[in-house]
Specification:
Layout (H helix, E strand, L loop, with lengths): L1 H37 L6 E4 L24 H14 L3 E4 L10 H10 L3 E6 L6 H10 L3 E6 L12 H14 L3 E9 L7 H11 L3 E7 L11 H13 L10 H6 L14 E4 L4 E3 L8 E4 L5 H8 L12 H7 L30
Parallel strand pairs: 1-2, 1-7, 2-3, 3-4, 4-5, 5-6
Antiparallel strand pairs: 7-8, 8-9
Length: 352
């Protein structure tokens, strides 16, 4: 009886802490939107890579390797200091698999010490009850896991069957917000899996989104009629998430080009493990300049630079940030030449 009482009390404590963190994070997100609408001089969202290595090898992914070492913690802190000085609002840690970095909690704490919102994208395999507790303590505010299928196959091991116990731990112990992203498109054998995954996410109290697998250049590939119907149903389930404002994804699902102003290199930055600034994960090489040398003038130029890959882009996080500025700042500049630091990098993915 006493054990059951302590379990109920612990559950109540987690729910209270989760609610408090949600409310404080939401207030900061609203301030972030207000700041972004008033000024265009700072990055809104930055994806930063502390670890290119991954413990999985999903067949469709071009964002990992199996040999890279973690970025040293002192170097990670220096990069975060640069981003904070720029006025960055949100830092999302990505990879590779960021939980493979031995000091990832220190990275999160450093983000929070600057007042920036801290998020993470992970495959979830390295989560445990103790790891969730350490992420709580570090101050993580958002975590996203992409689940590709109900049962693992040769394309992806990120299955609901494999990860469900970890999802239950997150539901019970995480005080940060959790989003589960299901996927549709090339390589996904059973599109109905996306619905099963989305319903399970909602059942556990998470938000749910759906992504569309792009080609090797981050460009769109239209879904078929059944996939589109599933896409729309999952999008309706995920109305609590910011993706409900993202009409671009509806165009992507239908293979339609979209007219928008991509602000990558300015309002959105992608910082690779080598500390170079890129437009995004799918256009590594532009502008390819070290973060320590990336000036306000460069960000200003990229704000007004038309991106050749924009009409067929599927990178939803960049599109969501673009919503803040689509109504202003017409783009009439051409991209700068690729930086010498990027030439010869075998990870560069440049669209022509």
């Amino acid at each position: 009886m006493a054990t059951e009482k302590r379990s109920v009390q612990a559950s109540g404590s987690v729910k209270l802490r989760r609610k408090l963190r949600f409310l404080t994070t939401r207030a900061r997100e609203l301030r972030m939107i207000g700041k972004a609408l008033i000024s265009t001089k700072h990055p809104v969202l930055v994806h930063i890579i502390p670890m290119r290595r991954c413990n999985l090898d999903c067949g469709y992914c071009n964002e990992y390797d199996q040999v890279s070492k973690p970025v040293p913690i002192d170097e990670m802190k220096r990069r975060l200091d640069y981003l904070a000085a720029m006025g960055t609002s949100i830092i999302t840690i990505s990879g590779g698999e960021p939980l493979m970095h031995p000091q990832i909690e220190e990275v999160i704490k450093h983000i929070r010490s600057h007042g920036m919102i801290a998020g993470m994208i992970t495959n979830g395999f390295l989560l445990s009850k103790d790891r969730i507790a350490s992420l709580n303590g570090a101050g993580l505010e958002h975590l996203q896991i992409s689940i590709d299928n109900v049962t693992p196959d040769e394309v992806s091991k990120k299955s609901l069957k494999t990860l469900d116990s970890r999802l239950e731990w997150l539901s019970q112990y995480a005080v940060f917000q959790v989003n589960i992203n299901s996927v549709l498109g090339s390589g996904v054998k059973n599109p109905e899996d996306a619905l099963v995954i989305a319903h399970r996410a909602i059942e556990l109290g998470f938000t749910s989104t759906v992504g569309i697998i792009h080609d090797g250049m981050g460009q769109l590939k239209a879904l078929n009629d059944r996939q589109i119907a599933i896409f729309e149903e999952v999008m309706n389930l995920g109305k609590r998430s910011f993706s409900r404002f993202n009409q671009f994804q509806h165009n992507v699902a239908r293979g339609k080009e979209h007219n928008w102003r991509c602000r990558s290199g300015s309002r959105y930055l992608y910082i690779c493990e080598d500390g170079l600034v890129h437009w995004c994960s799918q256009q590594r090489g532009y502008p390819g300049i070290p973060l320590s040398q990336y000036t306000p003038e460069m960000r200003h130029r990229e704000f007004f630079t038309e991106k050749f890959c924009g009409p067929r882009c599927t990178v939803s996080c960049v599109q969501q940030i673009g919503i803040l500025d689509n109504w202003r700042g017409p783009q009439n500049l051409k991209p700068m030449p690729m930086s010498p630091e990027s030439v010869g990098n075998d990870l560069v993915q440049i669209g022509k």
